[in-house]
Structure of L-threonine aldolase:
Amino acid sequence: MDFASDNAVGASPRVLEALLAANDGAEPAYGHDCYSHRARALLNEVFECEVSAYFVATGTASNALALGAITPPWGAVFCHHQAHIANDECGAPEMFTAGAKLIGVDGVQGKIDPAALRDILSGFPAGTVRQVQPASLSLSQATECGTLYDCGEIAELAAIAHDRGLAVHMDGARFANALVAIGCTAAEMSRKAGIDVLSFGATKNGALACEAVIFFDEAKAAAFAYQCKRAGHVLSKGRMLGAQMAAYLAGGHWLDLARLANRRAAELSDGLTKVPGVRLAFEPRGNQLFAALPRPVDAALRKAGARYYEWGDRGFGRMLTLGTNDVLVRLVTSFATSADDVRAFVSAARGAA
């Protein structure tokens, strides 16, 4: 009953098999191997255009390096004030932009409000020497609250940013989960909606340690290879990243994995809504679920061995009013979550209610 994170599980068997296959023989180093070429070709198919794709080992590197490519040291990155890049990456975006400032923007359910974005941008006119210069907008898909931007919402925010000359980044750590929940194409949820650079996550959804930074405008990636090398994210045995990404994408495997994780979250949601005293912040669309548990239920679940995080408010104040006897928790499912895990969790909660 491990619902702490989709990082808690290993890689999918298909990805592991691809790694074992890539381990045999020799291939050119530093990402010039056949596996990485294959992965880039598959990304071109997925996004329906020629992309510039770079493979790195962590989501933090993916986000921070991507922002470093589109934001100068004197620039500002606008993001939701609860965004992962603002609260959970130990200043990496600031470091890899060489000092750019992150500016928090309001919005309920972890989603930037268009009016709030317009309002805050009005306070950062370009050319004012005393201020950081507006440079980029970063959107999280899914958000830290587990909510999703629909394609129209992404397009509206991107248009506001582009009108002010900002580049638009998407933190897609759970891009696959969002995509299958919305039911659109990868291109529609990214470049066709105005995204300029995408941090395309695979680690949370079946890879061992593999993310891609994807530029839809090659000019924005002009110096990116050097940034990756300087940051220590050009692997000598780059085929180990290429092999993971190729296996992840081939035959829509990444979408199948995400559908399974989302299905388990829906089953967990359905079960918990029947437990007296348990309240959900909202019905999950992806693989994250946020719930207010009565303290006796929380204690019983932990005693039964369940793992999950107490979450605190973190922007949920307008979605869920907590009583003194409530604990707000985050529950995350993965492709490896079984139906038995869900049933055991719900049964333990029901037994304590």
In short: The domain at 13-253 is CATH 3.40.640.10 (Aspartate Aminotransferase; domain 2). The chain has two domains: 13-253, 257-352.
